[in-house]
């Protein structure tokens, strides 16, 4: 029950935030992977995975929607609903830490007999085309970093750097 209340709070905060805002303080000079697609700050005293899951999903979706609007404006043409759905899904998948590859199977809404026919297959192709463009755009936005935490390593003498013979990756996935 405690997690449900925390999730509801996170949903409210996520929906109130645009999803693509400069975060707390608005300082993007800190470097690597910074973008205009920043999850909202959630006022909790500790990490709560179910809250983080909702924030990551909502932020990925909102950032995908905003990026799609920019892409649509740059294209200057109307995009299909299937292309748009694929584009936004790519952002969500990147935010959730999935690899930067299209899924081998389309979403279940495309499993009906109609989509297996020659009339429906172009719509599946549109979804995959949108997904691929969403991946390309999302990888540049930094949305794929939402499930990673920065790891500091220290050498044997307490100074910065990895211990001899141990590679320092610097980034580790959460929740996996």
Give an overview of the whole structure.
This protein is mainly alpha-helical and 176 residues long. It has two domains: 2-20 and 33-145, no CATH class; 148-176, no CATH class. The chain has helices spanning 2-16, 49-75, 81-95, 113-116, 121-141, and strands at 148-150, 171-173. The chain is elongated and about 65 Å long.
Brief digest:
The chain is mainly alpha-helical.
Counting helices, strands and paired strands, the structural category is: mainly alpha
- The topology string of helices and strands comes to HHHHHEE
**Order of adjacent strands in the largest pleated sheet:** 1-2
Give me the count of strands.
2
Strand content: under 5%
* Number of discrete helical segments: 5
Q: Quote the distance from N terminus to C terminus.
A: 23 Å
Q: How many domain modules?
A: 2
Q: Which geometry do the CA atoms define?
A: elongated
* Fraction of helical residues: 40-55%
Using only C-alpha atoms, the radius of gyration works out to 19 Å
Largest sheet: 2 strands, antiparallel
Mean pLDDT: 77
Low-confidence segments: 13-34, 169-173
């Amino acid at each position: 029950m405690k997690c449900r209340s925390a999730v509801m709070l996170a949903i409210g905060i996520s929906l109130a935030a645009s999803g693509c805002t400069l975060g707390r303080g608005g300082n993007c000079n800190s470097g690597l992977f910074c973008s205009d697609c920043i999850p909202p700050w959630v006022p909790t005293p500790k990490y709560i995975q179910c809250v983080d899951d909702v924030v990551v999903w909502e932020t990925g979706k909102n950032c995908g929607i905003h990026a799609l609007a920019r892409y649509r404006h740059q294209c200057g043409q109307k995009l299909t609903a299937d292309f748009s759905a694929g584009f936004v899904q790519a952002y969500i998948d990147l935010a959730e830490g999935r690899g930067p590859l299209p899924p081998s199977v389309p979403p279940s809404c495309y499993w009906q007999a109609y989509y297996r026919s020659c009339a429906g297959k172009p719509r599946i192709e549109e979804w995959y085309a949108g997904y691929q463009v969403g991946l390309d755009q999302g990888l540049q936005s930094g949305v794929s970093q939402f499930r990673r935490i920065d790891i500091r390593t220290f050498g044997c003498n307490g100074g910065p750097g990895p211990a001899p013979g141990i590679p320092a990756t610097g980034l580790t996935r959460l929740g996996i």
